[in-house]
Amino acid sequence: MPRLVVNGKTQDIDADPNTPLLWVLREQIGLTGTKYGCGIAQCGACTVHIDGAAVRSCSLPVNEAEGKQITTIEGLAQNGVLHPVQKAWLEHDVPQCGYCQTGMIMAVAALLTEKPKPTDADIDSTITNICRCGTFQQVRAAIHAATDA
Ligand code: FES
Ligand code: FES
């Protein structure tokens, strides 16, 4: 039985070790902010943080997340204070339908931890999440705003 630490809370999970982490987060723990898009690690809708790094949870067996710190969109704000990326997203009205945006925000938050002042080239090479509403220019503007915050 895998034991996970999700948003700082330890959870005992009843799942096959090969079950994708995404299903466990959504179906067993009830954290539905993380979305299913493609299921093959291409779109980024399912992005969470594992020990601070962006990971596409649809393609990570749950047993590989054991003993690591998992953070989902529900755990990104701290003590009721939004993460700078979340604030920039609100200020720039980034989401359209919103479906891709939790994964987008998690990917960007991980990028800014690694590179606090990313260039446009850094953004293009790292934020490969797919947005069917085409919010890419707003995403870019909000990333630069978050770095200036
Ligand atoms: S659902 Fe995981 S990358 Fe698309
Ligand atoms: S905001 Fe609709 S898919 Fe990105």
Characterise the protein shown here:
- With 149 residues, this protein is of the alpha+beta class.
- Helices cover 34% and strands 13% of the residues.
- The protein has helices at residues 21-28, 84-91, 101-114, 120-126, 136-148; strands spanning 3-6, 9-12, 47-50, 53-56, 69-71.
- It has a 5-stranded mixed sheet, covered by helices on one side.
- The relative contact order is 0.17.
- The model has no long low-confidence stretch (mean pLDDT 96).
- The site of one FE2/S2 (inorganic) cluster has 12 residues, from loops.
Biggest sheet: strands side by side, in what order? Answer: 2-1-5-3-4
Round the mean pLDDT to the nearest integer and report it: 96
Can you list the ligands bound to this structure?
FE2/S2 (inorganic) cluster
Count the E strands. 5
What's the total helix number?
Answer: 5
Strand proportion, as a percent range, falls in: 5-15%
Indicate the low-confidence ranges by residue numbers: none
Describe the sheet with the most strands: 5 strands, mixed
Query: Ends: how far apart?
Result: 42 Å
Coarse morphology: globular
Radius of gyration: 15 Å
The helix/strand series, from N terminus to C terminus, equals EEHEEEHHHH
Write the layout of secondary structure elements.
Layout: E1 3-6, E2 9-12, H1 21-28, E3 47-50, E4 53-56, E5 69-71, H2 84-91, H3 101-114, H4 120-126, H5 136-148
Helix pairs in contact: 2-5
The chain binds FE2/S2 (inorganic) cluster (2 copies).
The site of one FE2/S2 (inorganic) cluster has 11 residues, from loops.
